[in-house]
Amino acid sequence: MPDPRKPIGVGIVGLSATGGWAAGAHLPALSAVDGIELRALAASSEAPAQAAGAAYGVPAYTSVEQLASDENVDLVVVAVKVPQHRELVLPVLNAGVPVLCEWPLAVDLREAEEMERAAGSTRTFVGLQGRSSPAFRWLADLVSEGFVGDVLSATVVASSTEWGTPVSQNMVYTLDRKLGATMLTIPFGHAIDLVSMVVGELQDVVATTATRRRQVPLGRTGQVVPMTAEDQIAISGTVAGGAILSVHHRGGAASGAGFSLIIDGTAGRLEITAAEFPHIGPVTVCGTRNGGRPTKITPPSGYDDYPGLAGTVIHTLVHAYAAIRDDLVHGTAVAPDFTHAVKRHRLLDAIGQSAATGQRIALHPLRPCAQ
Length: 371
Prior knowledge:
About 30% of the residues lie in helices and about 25% in strands. It has about 375 residues and is an alpha/beta fold. Helix 5 (about 110-120) packs antiparallel against helix 9 (about 340-355) and helix 6 (about 135-145) runs parallel beside helix 7. The longest helix is centred in the C-terminal third of the chain and has 20 residues, at about 340-355. The relative contact order is 0.15. InterPro entries: Gal80p-like_C (IPR055080), Gfo/Idh/MocA-like_OxRdtase_N (IPR000683), Gfo/Idh/MocA_oxidoreduct (IPR051317), NAD(P)-bd_dom_sf (IPR036291).
């Protein structure tokens, strides 16, 4: 456990001098949280490592093993493309260093389970930062405290502009379902994690999926590239307590991106909307109890520790880093870990099974792994 008197030292794999998600989100999020700071980084080769090290003023390494062995690094963050997660996470776990890996954790359930087993007693975290969202933590409390009464149903309609619109060369890999960075795993995976946090986990699921666009334009080149990832995902199932959850996520939407969650209960209704990614951007909440038109409601004080960052892409990530800091220093277990990631991968795997077979798939609770 890190010394609580000293900031937690972070080493990032994937922090580039030329930008990217790690530079645009992880770095400013770290800077906004007291008690945790960047100490080192690693890149795939000498030139980009040295460029990034010079840009951010920290030691730069060319392997994750070197990064994990730096005595000033208490947490390794893996912020690279999904197919590389396993090969980078396992050496960190073998070194016994806590790790935060971006979501999706792995390309499939088998890899995710392997990484969970490899963790042993080492602390792990997964980048489902939406669970740290002030709005969704408040919504989970609203529902559990009976704002809508007993939940009868929850209905999600979501759209992504990707997976159908022109794609850059750098993002072509997201069109290949075997590489694990698809509409099902990324926007749907993040969204279903938030919905499960609010209304409960699915106990069973039946799914219909389709790839309606078999080819996607490659930027403005005039060429097309094949797509095997699903661009239409429709599921339904029963959550704990008996409520029905239905979700339809649409890719390449000509009407633009969006997210809507409607929760109906015996005593009220909640309507949650977002412009696109609810785990990153702001959401609007309207509610009503005992009849009447839903009106806008807002969280009380106490949920948002960083109100000055509300509306930015790092707002939930900052809360996630604060939770990870507290978990490492105080031994708590608030931030989602690899065991939680496996549970989410298991749901995605069940959706794939159901879509392939036409059968309803039961999702059985699992015993926690021995620590």
